[in-house]
Amino acid sequence: MAERSSFVVVANRLPVDEVIVDGERQWRPSPGGLVTALHPVLTQHRGTWIGWAGGDGEAPEPFELEGINIHPVPLSAEELERYYEGQSNATIWPLYHDAVETPVYKRRWREAYRMVNQRFAQAAAEVAEEGATVWVQDYQLQLVPAMLREMRPDLRIGFFLHIPFPPIELFMQMPFRAEILRGLLGADLVGFQQRLAAQNFVRLARHLLGLRYEGQSIQVDGRKVKAGAFPISIDTADMERMAADPKVQARAKEIRAELGDPETVILGVDRLDYTKGIELRLKAFRELLADGKLKVPDAVMVQVATPSRERVEHYQTLRVKVEREVGRINGEFGKVGMPAVHYLHQSYSKQELAAMYVAADVMMVTPLRDGMNLVAKEYVACRSDRGGALVLSEFAGAATELRQSFLCNPHDPDGVKDALLRAVAAEPAELKRRMRVMQRHLRTHDVAEWARSFLNELGVPETDAAPDSEE
Ligand code: ADP
Ligand code: F6P
């Protein structure tokens, strides 16, 4: 029987990667911001993390890794297709991102979503001690809070949505909309990235279920459900340290040399996802080359497009379109040994990404809609030299905080081109001033602060919630 915990995290993915050492299956921690932020709370409480270990079929037995109980949940091949690729990533993902691609609705996906959510809730009910705190993460698990409350009314339940929460008009498209909303209302606290998203949620509760609310507090069956904004962040100190490492600095120089020491390196780093605005960014670059406002080899673009959700049709179509555009630009503007766009459909270590950030004069983050966008924050944290310019979409959650970036509307191609040109031409003194303000913000608003503020609001005592301090 699995060990019981007073603090439980429930997320679609486990914070571990499988590695094969001498033909043997082993697990190592995967270095994500979320697990870094929650590690101190998890270790203090003999905490458990419930999630999918990747792959299909039987799940490994629960095990302990670096002080955290890891509790794998199995997904069959069919569930993977219906719950993860279907309902989560072909229905909810596009709908919550302003329907920038058309959401697909299928009854069998919904049923699988319900079943898998029930399995996660069941696992949490089994491992949580009497009166424990359970923190459920993200859009894949929106039914878990209500399912869990039904089984274990003694628990304190938090939910955090990492992606946007849509306005009422869009949410109302969803065939099982009331069930999703009731699922979320099973929590004591529902956290969002943005204030507007929290407002969408409380208004929806009144619109769809006739529930009363006061401020950000909704009355549900004699209980109070709070909604609030908790913008997620990065481990700023860790990112700063990594970027300052002489090896990373040397690698950044090497990258620039490998690119032919151009005057301007323009960088994009995104999952290959249609919400990220990769195509429009490439198009802006092509038009500036065609207008003669930028020239190869003085300016080159590096686009890292991390493989993602590759069996989902929207993602397959996007890959074809992005790769066609890259081919077109290189065909028209590249020279022998000097492509205009260096396109990389690969994953990298955090160090290599940090070196790319340090090497880039302009970072382009142009999503059509994004809950937060941590890449934008990572870029800022890595620029200890206070050089570099961030071009940032107004439709990324990060735009609320990173006001000194070169903000643009990604739906307006001329606006994107203009922001890119302004970033390229900006004086070093101006870039420094902008970076300084943004870096100061990220030092106080890091991922540990995010976790602390959410858990405080949920009622987990401050001393327990506060992660170990570096100072
Ligand atoms: P999303 O959660 O939608 O993927 P974010 O920008 O918020 O977008 O977070 C992406 C995270 O993935 C960042 O921490 C970034 O450093 C990391 N990442 C992006 N591309 C790669 C890559 N090619 N290799 C390794 N890590 C990556
Ligand atoms: O930020 C949203 C999110 O779905 C996270 O939950 C997840 O870690 C990331 O994007 C990558 O997506 P996936 O887990 O589908 O590969």
UniProtKB/TrEMBL annotation:
Family annotation (Pfam families): Glyco_transf_20 (PF00982)
GO BP: trehalose biosynthetic process
| GO MF annotations in UniProt | alpha,alpha-trehalose-phosphate synthase (UDP-forming) activity
Name the source's superkingdom: Bacteria
Q: Which SUPFAM superfamilies match?
A: UDP-Glycosyltransferase/glycogen phosphorylase
Q: Coiled-coil region(s) at which residues?
A: none
Entries under InterPro entries matching the protein: Glyco_trans_20
Q: State the family it belongs to.
A: Belongs to the glycosyltransferase 20 family.
Identification of the protein by name: Trehalose 6-phosphate synthase
Give the source species: Pseudosporangium ferrugineum
